[in-house]
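Sequence of MerR family transcriptional regulator (Amycolatopsis rhizosphaerae).
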Amino acid sequence: MGGVSRTFTIGELARRTGVPVKTIRFYSDEGLLPPTDRTYSGYRLYDTRSLARLELIKTLRELGLGLAEIAQVLAEEVTVPRLAARHLAALDEQIRRLRLRRAVLRAVVKRESELEEVKLMNKLASMSDEERVRLLDEFWAEMVDGLTVDSEFFAGMRSAKPALPDDPSPEQVEAWAEFAELIQDPGFRQAIRAMSEQHAAALAAGDEMRPLDESRENWFRWNARAEEHLKAGLAPTSSEGRALAGEIAGAFARDGQNPDDPAFRRELADRCASGSDARAERYWQLLAIMNGWPPFPSQHAGTEWIIAALRG
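Predicted 3D structure, token representation.
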């Protein structure tokens, strides 16, 4: 035995580090903490370097590293920061999944969900961002399949993707479950496909396709005015209604078309009606909830008022 440095028995090492004797013996047997020496009776002894080594092993175990990884660190085969980065990524993913699970459970409590709905929400909430995006991409691909459409317009429609945060609220989980059901609903898919076909027909007929941002801006402005008139108790056939209908018809009329022509206005009203499906509006409202955007107010009442004004 050497007497140069202070030595400790397993019991003393256990008291100093808080690591059980049985665990220290196991580490020794596994080669992670070889004894510095032994007594004449064969009991293991450890020096101050062993004490520091055990403290390191204890810390790495508390951080979740396995024995094989700790052996690599002790043998200087891999650095602690590299292992930490690997475990941090795994831990982040675990935390993300736990938060999703918590949000699903909160939504279940809030909705008093039955078993089938619980299964659905858990399945949908557990999807990765890539899986959610793929589901939506497949939806839009089917909506325009075989149609010649304005690529910029539909690129704008497809660019809005559902993205649940790492710590979603129950409302966001509910929104994603409803959204996923909506885009897989045959009736909704048929309605959006019909809108796409109408868009393609208008493009083929030479209608000017305005940029998406401009179209939205114009429509929001018209709709806001319609809702103001509606709240004021004005009828679509009022002078205000006729003025708004004239402005909208003028904006959509092509060369050679008379915006005052009742037949043209009825056709325009039919086009607006086909695009005013409440489910399409719900699509954007759900996206806003999931992505944490400002609330998407309903425009259905204003749209119906505009349609009535166009029809006179």
